[in-house]
């Protein structure tokens, strides 16, 4: 026969262990291909490879970029080779636009505080009054 102290020792061992309800994912979920980096849905494109001229010219969705956002044209200097002017080189040039890395947090500007002139705190009033 077991005593009360021995029964008390056996009970915690027999009790089923609680399993956490929180599921920990081992793999990162794949980003949704239908969302842009800002989280907006991507525009649906037609899955056609060839478009007729009429379809291209009557595209209702097309919006030309505003004048403020348009890129300037990079003109190439004409070169002289064997006595004749060559205006197009054989090299292909690429235009690169670099943006700040969005993963790095931006630095916040410290806001300047404007103090009301002529106002006293309780401590300043007490010091003046004596």
How would you characterize the overall build of this protein?
It is a single chain. By secondary structure, this protein is mostly helical. Helices cover 18% and strands 5% of the residues. The chain has 3 helices and 2 strands. The protein has helices at 4-14, 53-57, 122-129; strands at 79-81, 84-86. A two-stranded antiparallel sheet has the order 1-2. A hairpin with a 2-residue loop joins β1 (79-81) and β2. The longest helix has 11 residues, at 4-14. The radius of gyration is 36 Å and the shape is extended. The N and C termini lie far apart (84 Å). The mean pLDDT is 74. InterPro entries: PRR14, Tantalus-like. Pfam families: Tantalus. Residues 1-20 are annotated as: Disordered. It comes from Micrurus spixii. Residues 35-92 form the Tantalus-like domain.
Distance between the termini: 84 Å
The portion of residues assigned to helices is 10-25%
Task: Outline the biggest β-sheet.
Answer: 2 strands, antiparallel
Task: Give the C-alpha Rg.
Answer: 36 Å
> Count of DSSP E strands?
2
* SSE run: HHEEH
Query: In DSSP terms, counting alpha (H) and pi (I) runs of 4 or more, how many helices?
Result: 3
Mean pLDDT: 74
User: Which ranges are low-confidence, i.e. pLDDT below 50, for 5 or more consecutive residues?
Assistant: none
Backbone structural class: mainly alpha
The coarse overall form would be: extended
Looking across the biggest beta sheet, what order are the strands in? 1-2
Beta-strand residue fraction: under 5%
Pfam family, one: Tantalus
InterPro entries: PRR14, Tantalus-like
Keywords: Phosphoprotein
Organism: Micrurus spixii
